[in-house]
Amino acid sequence: MTDHTNAPTFAQTPRIKKRNAAEKRFKGYGLTAIAIALTMLVILMGTILTRGVGAYTQTFVTLNVDLLESKLDKAGTRDPEAIAKVTTFGYSPLLKAAMDRVVAEHNIDTGLKSGDMAKILSKSAVSQLRDLVLSDVSQIGTTVKVKFLANSWIDGYLKGRVTRDSIENNKNVSSAQLDFVDALRAVGVVEKKFNPDFIFGADASDQRPEAAGMGVAMAGSFFMMLVVLFLSVPIGVAASIYLEEFAPKNWITDVIEVNISNLAAVPSIVFGILGLAVFINYMHLPQSAPLVGGLVLTLMTLPTIIISTRAALKAVPPSIRDAALGLGASKMQTIFHHVLPLAAPGILTGTIIGLAQALGETAPLLLIGMIGYIATNMPDGVSAGLFDPNSAMPAQIYEWAKRADPAFYERAWGGIIILLVFLISMNLLAIWLRRKFERRW
Amino acid sequence: MSFVKTTVSAIALTALAAGTAAARDNVQVAGSSTVLPYASIVAEAFGENFDFPTPVVESGGSSGGLKRFCEGVGENTIDVANASRKIKDKEIKACAEAGVTDIIEVRIGYDGIVFASDINGQNFAFQPADIYTALAAELPVDGKMVANPNTDWAAVNANFKSQPIQAYIPGTKHGTREVFEEKVLLAGCEETGAMAAILEINGGDEDAAESACMAVRTDGRSVDIDGDYTETLASIESNKDGIGVFGLAFYENNTDKLQVATMSGVMPSTESIAAGEYPVSRPLFFYIKKAHVGVIPGLKEYAEFFISDEVAGPDGPLAEYGLVSDPELAATQAAVSAEETMK
How many structural domains compose chain B? Predict the structure, then answer.
């Protein structure tokens, strides 16, 4: 007999004190770890939001533009084909005239020439005006009120990114132009507004960051996810059911199992190289197509889906199978009527998490030609969506982050917000489905 | 089980559609990241002004683009390769082996390469000799090659204030690196007389002397940047003593963070490069597969539009972005409209 057996149960012996202290310390470590993780998360989210939120508003300049017949339709025939021959370059005199007009209307005193005044507009203004004219040629000869984008430097000035000090050596914008913008702002011609085109629009070239949007890349991501969903779920579920329910336990299935686990850990760029070799060079599928992107991401997602589906199937108690078989159901009936419905929440969760992973993937897209100035045409149907060149959300963000104009940097952060919203909602959906349908035994 | 059936037929349909979906109707371009901004500006304007869809412009570097260009002829290969250097004989040969024989070379203009440092730091006025003395791997000293001993700009040139040598230069996969080596390092090597000294040491082997001139030190004073200029800029922002190599257009978009160094006393600008005064510039090209002209709709129109006066001329949008327009643009226009291939 040792001493401590005689001690009262609740007495604070040194040994118990030591154990309690150890426990407290351990809790402390845990709390610290969580606190560090949360701080990191807050810093990350805070950085993304503060840097990216600017991309959702944009500076607009509202002008009255005289659609002069002498510039757009010299013959006066209103023939749409002849008018279409006037390129976007032919529209810049109209913008200069509109600037002169706004100065006269509001009695603004500026030493700028009309060409320099028109430079506060985005380079997209001419094409916006041309599209407007071509949509209805009868407008020629009238005056229309149009809301143009301001260029990225003016936009940066209204957002505080560009200051008079920072543009000292800049040839893109002068402080006289900023004075002019201040004057226009005072009379309400220039204003900052919410810009839906950032979310729904197409990518723009390096010269007009203000016009770039995420919409087409979003469509590209959507079609890729469609391919992933339609291929990886049936293949993954079928493979898991076979492996889990039918396959004999022998060395071949062991090898397959090890390989699936290994595939899940293969770096995604490897799948990109494979996709380039097999889908593009061998099968001759088009380059930069969301179909190929989807196929590559399917390969990447399959192991994740197979592993989570097998885990879900394993979690269904054998008694359910035994009961069904005992009542005379065939093996297939047992699986499809009883096991699969019970495993469905787990399978769904695994699928959604796999899709979310695929949605954020950039590396494999690099090799199949989905990064660059690509997301320019909104696909007008399923076939175009699958086969026409397009980019994807993470690829578009990567592309923006590389470009020279600092305004693209803001858009890259703005794009990350959109991507995060998608990822978070997909993960929430997965959690919700699991909570709602999961059964415990 | 109808779900399984539908999916299987959906997969079959997709595969079928993949087989029949031929006839690509957009021009596909890939290559140099230096040319990418210009190509994207042209592609955008092309899509706006013509009935053809906007061409697709991918990056991937001059070598990467030309490699894909030389993969063969056909709809699943690219039509145009952008390059910030001339195509090499080796690449022309690889092209020919894959059946890409008729190549149209188009020079779009010139691009300046500038040295820039942090806006608040020292203002540099470089000679190629300074860069060579600061960044060469080995320097000839008293008849022997010794590892570059310079660690401070003041030791390189007495006119500079003391500042540790730290340079961020383009990695070897960039076309810019070649220009840097030839127009700066090699020029500096000859200027300082190091070339003659090296020839004396190695017994007159000119090839070996040239590669010795262009070898960059690897002791961490010079860092290869394999990414884009944004990465170089980030490096300079984190190390204020750094000197980086940039394209002129990139510098002009970031004048609030960078100050540019003069080279041989000339301030880099589109004007000084066009006049041939600023020494570090290089021509930019794109290459067209002649076999695709007439097959891919809009290919020739794209090429002609790219080098038209209103786009690539001195007052065009490309010049505005930073391209130095080619004084011989008219000859290039004539060559493209006649579809003249390389010999």
Answer: 2
